[in-house]
Design brief:
Its EC number is 4.2.1.10. This protein is of the alpha/beta class. The chain contains nine helices and eight strands. The protein has an eight-stranded parallel sheet. The structure holds 1,3,4-trihydroxy-5-OXO-cyclohexanecarboxylic acid (DQA).
């Protein structure tokens, strides 16, 4: 059974923590103790991206809803290999995770990654990132439309918010669908990480221990605020 899909079906917002391959056994233990909702496995941040190593790290998160991300450099990630190698890795991990995250801009492998996800009952998160700005609303709409047309189960839009207008545009696109994760990155965007889940954004991303990125709050703080503002957060008991 796909536990992430079941969690999405409850309608409650989820808090993800992103992990690389440093001390995974301890990280998984910490994540369990903290009751993290979703483990995002950032394979592109791994020191070793060999298939056997990657599968061992994924295995360490057994029992968690897992989301595998192999972010391209074009969208702020650290993947060094070719697209073919990335596709092979997606194919190897898809049977062992609840979801994969692939960029809409990764056109060369997008259809195959989504097909692989489907084959293994994993959800396809089709993502878009802009680390410079928040594009105009029509562009954000077109991105969401294109991601759905490609076969996204979930559309993720993550852009740097520099002003209240940027946040409003992100909010506008969020309100137009029920299949979205929307994040305003940067200092101004931090509010979106707590506010947007109340408006339907399915996952908010956090960290445990490591240095914050892009305006994220850490897991304990996010969890505390989610409990304060979202009556349905954390009600489901495992
Ligand atoms: O794309 C996203 C969003 C993110 O960049 C953030 O700013 O929260 C964190 C990433 O790990 C994740 O894949």
């Amino acid at each position: 059974m796909n536990t992430l899909r079941a969690l999405f079906d409850t309608g409650a917002p989820l808090v993800a923590v992103s992990f690389d391959d440093r001390d995974v056994a301890r990280a998984a233990e910490e994540a369990g103790a903290a009751r993290v909702d979703v483990a995002e496995i950032r394979v592109d941040r791994f020191a070793d991206t060999g298939t056997a190593h990657v599968l061992r790290q994924v295995e360490a998160f057994k029992g968690f809803p897992t989301l595998a991300t192999i972010r391209s450099r074009a969208e702020g990630g650290f993947w060094q290999g070719s697209d073919e190698e990335r596709l092979d890795l997606f194919r190897a991990v898809a049977p062992h995770v609840d979801a994969v995250d692939v960029e809409l801009s990764s056109r060369a492998i997008l259809d195959d990654v989504i097909a692989t996800a489907r084959e293994h009952d994993a959800l396809a998160v089709v993502s878009f990132h802009d680390f410079d700005r928040t594009p105009p609303l029509d562009d954000l709409r077109a991105t969401a439309r294109d991601a759905r047309a490609a076969g996204a189960d979930v559309v993720k839009i993550s852009t740097v918010a520099r002003s209240r207008d940027d946040l409003k545009r992100l909010c506008a696109v969020l309100l137009e669908g029920d299949d979205l994760i929307v994040i305003g990155m940067g200092e101004v965007g931090t509010a979106s990480r707590i506010l947007f889940p109340a408006l339907g954004s399915k996952i908010t991303y956090t960290f445990l221990g490591a240095a914050p990125t892009s305006g994220q709050l850490d897991f304990p703080e996010t969890s505390r605020l989610m409990r304060l503002f979202h009556p349905d957060y954390g009600r489901r008991e495992s």
